[in-house]
Automatic annotation (TrEMBL):
Biological classification of the source: Bacteria, Bacillati, Bacillota, Bacilli, Bacillales
GO molecular function, one term: methyltransferase activity
Domain of life, per lineage: Bacteria
UniProt-listed PANTHER family: ESTERASE, PUTATIVE (AFU_ORTHOLOGUE AFUA_1G05850)-RELATED
Name of the featured protein: Erythromycin esterase family protein
SUPFAM superfamilies in UniProt: EreA/ChaN-like
Protein backbone atom coordinates (compact mmCIF):
# COMPACT_ATOMS: atom_id res chain seq x y z
CA UNK A 1 0.00 0.00 0.00
CA UNK A 2 1.47 3.38 -0.98
CA UNK A 3 1.42 6.39 1.35
CA UNK A 4 -1.64 7.95 -0.33
CA UNK A 5 -3.68 4.75 0.00
CA UNK A 6 -2.59 4.38 3.61
CA UNK A 7 -3.55 7.98 4.37
CA UNK A 8 -6.96 7.48 2.74
CA UNK A 9 -7.55 4.35 4.83
CA UNK A 10 -6.58 6.13 8.04
CA UNK A 11 -8.89 9.03 7.22
CA UNK A 12 -11.83 6.66 6.61
CA UNK A 13 -11.09 4.87 9.87
CA UNK A 14 -10.96 8.09 11.88
CA UNK A 15 -14.02 9.54 10.12
CA UNK A 16 -16.21 6.60 11.09
CA UNK A 17 -14.72 6.51 14.58
CA UNK A 18 -15.67 10.15 15.00
CA UNK A 19 -19.25 9.30 14.04
CA UNK A 20 -19.45 6.29 16.39
CA UNK A 21 -17.72 7.82 19.42
CA UNK A 22 -20.11 8.24 22.37
CA UNK A 23 -18.68 10.53 25.07
CA UNK A 24 -19.50 9.95 28.69
CA UNK A 25 -18.66 11.74 31.87
CA UNK A 26 -18.87 10.23 35.36
CA UNK A 27 -20.56 7.06 34.08
CA UNK A 28 -23.20 8.82 31.97
CA UNK A 29 -24.25 6.92 28.83
CA UNK A 30 -23.18 3.53 30.19
CA UNK A 31 -26.77 2.47 29.64
CA UNK A 32 -25.95 2.58 25.92
CA UNK A 33 -23.68 -0.45 26.44
CA UNK A 34 -26.30 -2.15 28.62
CA UNK A 35 -28.77 -1.69 25.79
CA UNK A 36 -26.31 -3.11 23.23
CA UNK A 37 -25.67 -6.15 25.45
CA UNK A 38 -29.29 -7.13 24.88
CA UNK A 39 -30.07 -10.72 25.87
CA UNK A 40 -26.46 -11.89 26.26
CA UNK A 41 -25.99 -14.17 29.25
CA UNK A 42 -22.22 -13.72 29.41
CA UNK A 43 -20.59 -10.28 29.41
CA UNK A 44 -16.79 -10.06 29.25
CA UNK A 45 -15.26 -6.86 30.64
CA UNK A 46 -11.61 -6.35 29.80
CA UNK A 47 -8.77 -4.06 30.84
CA UNK A 48 -5.60 -2.90 29.12
CA UNK A 49 -3.58 -3.34 32.33
CA UNK A 50 -3.86 -4.99 35.74
CA UNK A 51 -3.08 -1.78 37.60
CA UNK A 52 -5.48 0.97 36.46
CA UNK A 53 -8.12 2.27 38.87
CA UNK A 54 -10.44 3.63 36.18
CA UNK A 55 -10.89 0.24 34.51
CA UNK A 56 -12.01 -1.32 37.81
CA UNK A 57 -14.24 1.63 38.66
CA UNK A 58 -16.10 1.64 35.33
CA UNK A 59 -16.36 -2.16 35.23
CA UNK A 60 -17.89 -2.06 38.72
CA UNK A 61 -20.47 0.52 37.67
CA UNK A 62 -21.34 -1.39 34.52
CA UNK A 63 -21.58 -4.63 36.53
CA UNK A 64 -23.95 -2.99 39.02
CA UNK A 65 -26.25 -1.96 36.17
CA UNK A 66 -26.20 -5.45 34.69
CA UNK A 67 -26.98 -6.96 38.09
CA UNK A 68 -29.84 -4.63 38.91
CA UNK A 69 -31.41 -4.27 35.46
CA UNK A 70 -30.68 -7.61 33.77
CA UNK A 71 -30.35 -10.09 36.63
CA UNK A 72 -26.67 -11.00 36.29
CA UNK A 73 -25.64 -13.08 39.29
CA UNK A 74 -22.04 -14.24 38.72
CA UNK A 75 -18.81 -12.25 38.81
CA UNK A 76 -15.87 -14.31 37.53
CA UNK A 77 -12.41 -12.75 37.79
CA UNK A 78 -8.85 -13.47 36.71
CA UNK A 79 -7.90 -14.51 40.24
CA UNK A 80 -7.35 -17.64 42.32
CA UNK A 81 -10.40 -19.61 43.40
CA UNK A 82 -9.50 -20.05 47.11
CA UNK A 83 -8.73 -16.36 47.68
CA UNK A 84 -11.79 -15.18 45.75
CA UNK A 85 -14.05 -17.73 47.45
CA UNK A 86 -13.25 -16.15 50.80
CA UNK A 87 -14.60 -12.86 49.41
CA UNK A 88 -17.58 -14.75 47.95
CA UNK A 89 -18.44 -15.98 51.43
CA UNK A 90 -18.43 -12.38 52.62
CA UNK A 91 -20.60 -10.88 49.86
CA UNK A 92 -23.13 -13.69 50.32
CA UNK A 93 -23.23 -13.21 54.09
CA UNK A 94 -22.29 -16.79 54.91
CA UNK A 95 -21.86 -17.90 58.51
CA UNK A 96 -18.31 -17.41 59.73
CA UNK A 97 -17.41 -14.95 56.97
CA UNK A 98 -15.12 -11.98 57.57
CA UNK A 99 -16.49 -8.80 59.11
CA UNK A 100 -15.47 -6.53 56.21
CA UNK A 101 -14.53 -6.73 52.55
CA UNK A 102 -11.01 -5.53 53.37
CA UNK A 103 -10.55 -8.51 55.69
CA UNK A 104 -12.12 -10.88 53.16
CA UNK A 105 -9.46 -9.86 50.62
CA UNK A 106 -6.75 -11.11 52.98
CA UNK A 107 -5.90 -14.26 51.00
CA UNK A 108 -4.78 -12.34 47.91
CA UNK A 109 -1.15 -12.67 48.98
CA UNK A 110 0.24 -13.99 45.71
CA UNK A 111 2.14 -11.45 43.58
CA UNK A 112 0.68 -9.26 42.11
CA UNK A 113 -1.32 -8.66 45.29
CA UNK A 114 -2.59 -5.27 44.09
CA UNK A 115 -4.58 -6.88 41.30
CA UNK A 116 -7.47 -7.80 43.62
CA UNK A 117 -6.50 -6.50 47.07
CA UNK A 118 -7.34 -2.89 46.33
CA UNK A 119 -9.83 -0.28 47.43
CA UNK A 120 -11.74 -0.48 44.15
CA UNK A 121 -12.57 -4.18 44.70
CA UNK A 122 -13.22 -3.55 48.40
CA UNK A 123 -15.85 -0.93 47.57
CA UNK A 124 -17.46 -3.10 44.89
CA UNK A 125 -17.59 -6.05 47.29
CA UNK A 126 -19.33 -3.92 49.92
CA UNK A 127 -21.92 -2.97 47.30
CA UNK A 128 -22.39 -6.66 46.38
CA UNK A 129 -22.93 -7.59 50.01
CA UNK A 130 -25.48 -4.80 50.51
CA UNK A 131 -27.27 -5.74 47.29
CA UNK A 132 -27.45 -9.40 48.26
CA UNK A 133 -28.77 -8.55 51.72
CA UNK A 134 -31.41 -6.16 50.37
CA UNK A 135 -32.56 -8.21 47.38
CA UNK A 136 -31.99 -11.81 48.46
CA UNK A 137 -31.52 -11.68 52.23
CA UNK A 138 -33.56 -14.83 52.84
CA UNK A 139 -32.91 -16.37 49.45
CA UNK A 140 -30.84 -19.37 48.43
CA UNK A 141 -27.14 -19.30 47.59
CA UNK A 142 -28.04 -19.47 43.90
CA UNK A 143 -30.14 -16.32 44.11
CA UNK A 144 -27.31 -14.21 45.50
CA UNK A 145 -24.62 -12.62 43.34
CA UNK A 146 -21.37 -14.55 43.75
CA UNK A 147 -17.74 -13.52 43.33
CA UNK A 148 -15.43 -16.25 41.99
CA UNK A 149 -11.82 -16.59 40.87
CA UNK A 150 -11.59 -18.63 37.68
CA UNK A 151 -7.80 -18.70 37.29
CA UNK A 152 -5.53 -21.66 38.14
CA UNK A 153 -2.31 -20.59 39.88
CA UNK A 154 -3.33 -21.88 43.34
CA UNK A 155 -2.02 -25.46 43.00
CA UNK A 156 -1.11 -26.06 46.64
CA UNK A 157 -3.87 -23.94 48.18
CA UNK A 158 -6.51 -25.71 46.09
CA UNK A 159 -5.12 -29.14 46.92
CA UNK A 160 -5.24 -28.30 50.62
CA UNK A 161 -8.82 -27.05 50.23
CA UNK A 162 -9.84 -30.31 48.54
CA UNK A 163 -8.37 -32.37 51.38
CA UNK A 164 -10.05 -30.14 53.97
CA UNK A 165 -13.43 -30.59 52.31
CA UNK A 166 -13.04 -34.36 51.96
CA UNK A 167 -12.01 -34.63 55.62
CA UNK A 168 -15.02 -32.57 56.65
CA UNK A 169 -17.42 -34.72 54.65
CA UNK A 170 -15.63 -38.01 55.47
CA UNK A 171 -15.41 -38.77 51.79
CA UNK A 172 -14.11 -42.07 50.39
CA UNK A 173 -11.92 -39.97 48.04
CA UNK A 174 -9.84 -38.71 51.00
CA UNK A 175 -7.17 -41.41 50.72
CA UNK A 176 -6.59 -40.69 47.02
CA UNK A 177 -6.47 -36.95 47.77
CA UNK A 178 -3.79 -37.46 50.41
CA UNK A 179 -1.76 -39.57 47.98
CA UNK A 180 -2.07 -36.82 45.39
CA UNK A 181 -0.97 -34.11 47.81
CA UNK A 182 1.95 -36.25 49.02
CA UNK A 183 3.19 -36.43 45.43
CA UNK A 184 3.53 -32.61 45.39
CA UNK A 185 5.19 -32.30 48.81
CA UNK A 186 8.83 -32.77 47.65
CA UNK A 187 8.60 -29.59 45.57
CA UNK A 188 8.14 -27.29 48.62
CA UNK A 189 5.29 -25.32 47.06
CA UNK A 190 7.62 -24.09 44.33
CA UNK A 191 5.94 -24.03 40.91
CA UNK A 192 9.18 -23.72 38.97
CA UNK A 193 10.76 -26.69 40.72
CA UNK A 194 7.73 -28.81 39.97
CA UNK A 195 7.60 -27.59 36.38
CA UNK A 196 11.22 -28.59 35.74
CA UNK A 197 10.77 -32.00 37.37
CA UNK A 198 7.52 -32.71 35.54
CA UNK A 199 8.24 -31.09 32.19
CA UNK A 200 11.88 -31.96 31.70
CA UNK A 201 12.56 -34.92 33.99
CA UNK A 202 9.20 -36.72 33.58
CA UNK A 203 8.69 -36.80 37.36
CA UNK A 204 5.10 -35.57 37.39
CA UNK A 205 2.05 -36.08 39.60
CA UNK A 206 -0.23 -36.27 36.59
CA UNK A 207 -1.47 -39.83 37.19
CA UNK A 208 -2.44 -39.10 40.79
CA UNK A 209 -4.27 -35.93 39.80
CA UNK A 210 -6.15 -37.61 36.96
CA UNK A 211 -7.32 -40.42 39.22
CA UNK A 212 -8.54 -38.05 41.92
CA UNK A 213 -10.27 -35.84 39.36
CA UNK A 214 -12.07 -38.87 37.96
CA UNK A 215 -13.27 -39.88 41.42
CA UNK A 216 -14.38 -36.35 42.26
CA UNK A 217 -16.31 -36.06 39.00
CA UNK A 218 -18.20 -39.28 39.63
CA UNK A 219 -19.10 -38.15 43.13
CA UNK A 220 -20.27 -34.74 41.89
CA UNK A 221 -22.53 -36.40 39.36
CA UNK A 222 -23.98 -38.68 42.02
CA UNK A 223 -24.37 -36.05 44.72
CA UNK A 224 -25.16 -32.58 43.32
CA UNK A 225 -25.37 -30.20 46.25
CA UNK A 226 -24.11 -27.13 47.97
CA UNK A 227 -21.86 -24.29 46.93
CA UNK A 228 -19.20 -25.76 49.21
CA UNK A 229 -19.24 -28.88 47.04
CA UNK A 230 -18.93 -26.69 43.94
CA UNK A 231 -15.90 -25.10 45.61
CA UNK A 232 -14.30 -28.49 46.19
CA UNK A 233 -15.01 -29.48 42.60
CA UNK A 234 -13.44 -26.34 41.14
CA UNK A 235 -10.46 -26.60 43.49
CA UNK A 236 -9.90 -30.09 42.12
CA UNK A 237 -10.14 -28.73 38.59
CA UNK A 238 -7.57 -26.07 39.55
CA UNK A 239 -5.22 -28.79 40.82
CA UNK A 240 -5.51 -30.68 37.54
CA UNK A 241 -5.15 -27.61 35.30
CA UNK A 242 -2.36 -26.09 37.36
CA UNK A 243 -0.37 -29.33 37.29
CA UNK A 244 -0.70 -29.43 33.49
CA UNK A 245 0.18 -25.73 33.22
CA UNK A 246 3.45 -25.99 35.15
CA UNK A 247 4.34 -29.26 33.41
CA UNK A 248 4.00 -27.63 29.98
CA UNK A 249 5.29 -24.15 30.86
CA UNK A 250 8.98 -25.10 30.91
CA UNK A 251 8.76 -26.46 27.37
CA UNK A 252 7.66 -23.13 25.91
CA UNK A 253 5.11 -22.65 23.13
CA UNK A 254 1.40 -21.86 23.35
CA UNK A 255 0.27 -24.95 25.25
CA UNK A 256 0.55 -23.56 28.79
CA UNK A 257 -1.37 -20.41 27.79
CA UNK A 258 -4.08 -22.56 26.22
CA UNK A 259 -4.29 -24.78 29.32
CA UNK A 260 -4.91 -21.68 31.41
CA UNK A 261 -7.60 -20.11 29.23
CA UNK A 262 -9.39 -23.42 28.70
CA UNK A 263 -9.39 -23.84 32.46
CA UNK A 264 -10.96 -20.42 32.99
CA UNK A 265 -13.74 -21.28 30.54
CA UNK A 266 -14.37 -24.65 32.18
CA UNK A 267 -14.45 -23.08 35.66
CA UNK A 268 -16.93 -20.47 34.47
CA UNK A 269 -19.17 -23.10 32.91
CA UNK A 270 -19.22 -25.12 36.14
CA UNK A 271 -20.25 -22.07 38.10
CA UNK A 272 -23.01 -21.36 35.59
CA UNK A 273 -24.14 -24.98 35.79
CA UNK A 274 -24.41 -24.60 39.57
CA UNK A 275 -26.63 -21.52 39.15
CA UNK A 276 -28.79 -23.34 36.62
CA UNK A 277 -31.14 -21.74 34.14
CA UNK A 278 -30.89 -18.33 35.82
CA UNK A 279 -27.10 -18.11 35.37
CA UNK A 280 -25.81 -14.86 33.88
CA UNK A 281 -22.10 -14.15 34.21
CA UNK A 282 -19.88 -11.08 34.11
CA UNK A 283 -16.17 -11.79 33.59
CA UNK A 284 -13.38 -9.40 34.59
CA UNK A 285 -10.11 -10.21 32.83
CA UNK A 286 -7.37 -8.61 30.78
CA UNK A 287 -8.18 -7.71 27.17
CA UNK A 288 -5.78 -10.44 26.04
CA UNK A 289 -8.15 -13.00 27.57
CA UNK A 290 -11.60 -11.60 26.78
CA UNK A 291 -10.96 -10.14 23.31
CA UNK A 292 -11.31 -12.83 20.61
CA UNK A 293 -7.82 -14.25 19.91
CA UNK A 294 -8.76 -14.92 16.29
CA UNK A 295 -8.81 -11.15 15.70
CA UNK A 296 -5.14 -10.80 16.75
CA UNK A 297 -1.76 -12.32 15.96
CA UNK A 298 -2.34 -14.79 18.80
CA UNK A 299 -4.07 -17.08 16.32
CA UNK A 300 -0.90 -17.32 14.21
CA UNK A 301 0.95 -18.49 17.34
CA UNK A 302 -1.56 -21.29 17.94
CA UNK A 303 -3.08 -19.58 20.98
CA UNK A 304 -6.73 -19.51 22.01
CA UNK A 305 -8.36 -17.45 24.73
CA UNK A 306 -11.50 -17.08 26.81
CA UNK A 307 -13.22 -14.74 24.37
CA UNK A 308 -12.67 -17.05 21.42
CA UNK A 309 -13.66 -20.23 23.25
CA UNK A 310 -16.89 -18.74 24.56
CA UNK A 311 -17.82 -17.25 21.20
CA UNK A 312 -17.27 -20.63 19.56
CA UNK A 313 -19.76 -22.24 21.94
CA UNK A 314 -23.21 -22.10 20.28
CA UNK A 315 -24.91 -22.33 23.67
CA UNK A 316 -23.41 -19.04 24.90
CA UNK A 317 -24.62 -15.54 24.08
CA UNK A 318 -21.48 -13.47 24.58
CA UNK A 319 -20.82 -9.73 24.57
CA UNK A 320 -17.19 -8.57 24.95
CA UNK A 321 -16.20 -5.06 26.04
CA UNK A 322 -12.58 -3.98 25.72
CA UNK A 323 -11.07 -1.19 27.85
CA UNK A 324 -8.12 1.08 27.13
CA UNK A 325 -6.45 4.40 27.86
CA UNK A 326 -4.45 7.02 25.99
CA UNK A 327 -2.15 7.97 28.88
CA UNK A 328 -1.93 8.10 32.67
CA UNK A 329 -0.66 5.96 35.52
CA UNK A 330 -0.47 2.24 36.26
CA UNK A 331 0.71 -0.09 39.03
CA UNK A 332 3.20 -2.70 37.83
CA UNK A 333 6.55 -4.28 38.61
CA UNK A 334 9.80 -3.81 36.70
CA UNK A 335 10.29 -7.59 36.76
CA UNK A 336 8.26 -10.56 37.98
CA UNK A 337 8.05 -10.45 41.77
CA UNK A 338 9.58 -6.97 42.07
CA UNK A 339 8.02 -4.37 44.38
CA UNK A 340 5.02 -2.64 42.87
CA UNK A 341 5.62 0.83 41.41
CA UNK A 342 3.39 3.61 40.19
CA UNK A 343 4.49 4.09 36.59
CA UNK A 344 3.65 6.63 33.91
CA UNK A 345 1.77 5.37 30.86
CA UNK A 346 2.94 7.45 27.89
CA UNK A 347 0.58 8.70 25.19
CA UNK A 348 -0.57 6.03 22.73
CA UNK A 349 1.71 5.45 19.77
CA UNK A 350 0.74 7.45 16.65
CA UNK A 351 -1.56 5.39 14.44
CA UNK A 352 -2.58 3.05 17.29
CA UNK A 353 -6.15 2.37 18.43
CA UNK A 354 -5.45 4.43 21.55
CA UNK A 355 -4.27 7.35 19.43
CA UNK A 356 -7.36 7.18 17.21
CA UNK A 357 -9.75 7.01 20.18
CA UNK A 358 -8.00 10.00 21.75
CA UNK A 359 -8.34 11.99 18.54
CA UNK A 360 -11.95 10.95 17.94
CA UNK A 361 -13.00 11.99 21.42
CA UNK A 362 -10.92 15.13 21.58
CA UNK A 363 -9.31 13.91 24.79
CA UNK A 364 -12.50 12.91 26.64
CA UNK A 365 -13.69 9.53 27.88
CA UNK A 366 -16.09 7.64 25.66
CA UNK A 367 -17.09 4.40 24.02
CA UNK A 368 -17.78 2.77 20.69
CA UNK A 369 -20.33 0.04 19.96
CA UNK A 370 -18.20 -2.01 17.57
CA UNK A 371 -20.99 -4.47 16.81
CA UNK A 372 -22.66 -1.57 14.96
CA UNK A 373 -19.50 -0.53 13.09
CA UNK A 374 -18.71 -1.22 9.44
CA UNK A 375 -16.02 -3.46 8.00
CA UNK A 376 -13.63 -0.49 8.17
CA UNK A 377 -12.93 -1.58 11.75
CA UNK A 378 -11.72 -4.97 10.55
CA UNK A 379 -8.55 -3.16 9.45
CA UNK A 380 -5.68 -4.39 11.61
CA UNK A 381 -4.39 -1.74 14.02
CA UNK A 382 -2.00 -1.72 16.99
CA UNK A 383 -3.81 -1.96 20.36
CA UNK A 384 -1.91 -1.50 23.64
CA UNK A 385 -1.66 -4.21 26.30
CA UNK A 386 0.17 -3.67 29.61
CA UNK A 387 0.95 -6.58 31.92
CA UNK A 388 1.91 -6.81 35.59
CA UNK A 389 5.52 -6.41 34.41
CA UNK A 390 5.99 -3.17 32.50
CA UNK A 391 8.64 -0.80 31.21
CA UNK A 392 7.11 2.42 29.82
CA UNK A 393 10.32 3.19 27.96
CA UNK A 394 10.12 0.08 25.79
CA UNK A 395 6.38 -0.44 25.27
CA UNK A 396 6.55 0.19 21.52
CA UNK A 397 8.60 -3.00 21.11
CA UNK A 398 6.04 -5.42 22.47
CA UNK A 399 3.01 -3.80 24.06
CA UNK A 400 0.91 -3.29 20.92
CA UNK A 401 -1.15 -6.23 19.69
CA UNK A 402 -2.18 -6.17 16.00
CA UNK A 403 -5.97 -6.31 16.19
CA UNK A 404 -9.11 -6.23 14.08
CA UNK A 405 -11.13 -4.29 16.63
CA UNK A 406 -14.60 -5.11 15.26
CA UNK A 407 -13.77 -8.82 15.37
CA UNK A 408 -12.07 -8.65 18.75
CA UNK A 409 -14.76 -6.83 20.78
CA UNK A 410 -18.45 -5.94 20.62
CA UNK A 411 -17.85 -2.59 22.31
CA UNK A 412 -14.93 -0.58 23.63
CA UNK A 413 -14.58 1.85 26.55
CA UNK A 414 -11.87 4.50 26.22
CA UNK A 415 -10.71 6.31 29.36
CA UNK A 416 -8.44 9.01 28.05
CA UNK A 417 -6.32 9.80 31.12
CA UNK A 418 -6.24 7.20 33.86
CA UNK A 419 -4.90 6.77 37.40
CA UNK A 420 -3.26 3.88 39.24
CA UNK A 421 -5.04 1.37 41.46
CA UNK A 422 -5.07 1.91 45.22
CA UNK A 423 -3.67 -1.26 46.84
CA UNK A 424 -4.75 -2.51 50.26
CA UNK A 425 -2.45 -3.99 52.89
CA UNK A 426 -3.09 -7.69 53.34
CA UNK A 427 -4.61 -7.71 56.82
CA UNK A 428 -4.32 -11.32 57.91
CA UNK A 429 -4.33 -14.89 56.56
CA UNK A 430 -7.58 -16.81 56.74
CA UNK A 431 -7.80 -18.95 59.88
CA UNK A 432 -9.57 -21.89 58.27
CA UNK A 433 -9.85 -22.97 54.66
CA UNK A 434 -13.11 -24.66 53.63
Amino acid sequence: MNSNDQSTGQNAYLKELNALFIPFNEMENLDRIVEAIGDADMVLLGEASHGTSDFYRVRAELSKRLITSKGFNIIGVEGDWPAAYRLNRYVKGKAGADSSAAEALGDFTRWPTWMWANTEIRDFAEWLKAHNAASHGNGSERQKVGFYGIDMYSLWESMEAVIGYLEKTRSPQLEQARMTYACFEPYSRDHQTYGIAAGLLSESCEDEVVELLKQMRSRRMAHPGSEEELSAEVNMLVTSSSEAYYRTMVRGGPQSWNVRDRHMVESLKRIMSYYGSSAKAIVWEHNTHIGDARATDMAQEGMVNVGQLLREDPEQRVFAVGFGTYQGEVLAGSAWGDPVEKMTVPPGQPGSWEDYMHRAGGGVDGMVILSEASSVFQTVIGHRAIGVVYDPNHEQFGNYVPSSMKDRYDAFVHLDRTTALHPLPILRPVAEKV
